[in-house]
């Protein structure tokens, strides 16, 4: 619920403080609903992609996997071709 309210607040603030005060942007987004739909349709997948790329490039993910393997020795991936 908090994330939803934060997202609505951000969309509202950006629209009414930025877009309404810039005539060039207001011509592209005359109504709030159009802006909110477009921003959500682009923002959500982009946020997921950036978060995924960040986790893949972060050393925290590797360290977390190392710790989970040490904590539970039965939880590991077998090397490719192990059962051949």
Percent of residues in β-strands: under 5%
Run of helices and strands: HHHH
Determine the fraction of residues in helical runs and give it as a percent range. over 70%
User: Whole-Å distance between the termini?
Assistant: 50 Å
- Class based on secondary structure composition and strand pairing: mainly alpha
The geometry reads as: elongated
In DSSP terms (H or I, runs of 4 or more residues), the helix count works out at: 4
Low-confidence stretches: none
Give the averaged pLDDT, no decimals: 85
| Count of discrete structural domains | 1
| Biggest sheet details | none
Can you give a write-up of this model?
With 84 residues, this protein is an all-alpha fold. 75% of the residues lie in helices and 0% in strands. α1 crosses α3. It starts with a helix and ends in a 13-residue tail after the last helix. The relative contact order is 0.06.
Give a quick precis of the structure.
The chain has 84 residues and is mainly alpha-helical.
Key traits:
elongated; 75% helix; mainly alpha; 84 residues
């Amino acid at each position: 619920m908090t994330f939803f309210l934060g997202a609505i607040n951000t969309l509202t603030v950006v629209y009414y403080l930025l877009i309404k005060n810039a005539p060039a942007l207001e011509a592209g987004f005359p109504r709030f609903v159009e802006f909110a739909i477009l921003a959500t349709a682009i923002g959500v997948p982009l946020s997921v992609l950036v978060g995924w790329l960040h986790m893949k490039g972060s050393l925290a993910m590797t360290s977390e996997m190392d710790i989970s393997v040490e904590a539970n020795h039965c939880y590991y991936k077998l090397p490719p071709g192990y059962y051949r």
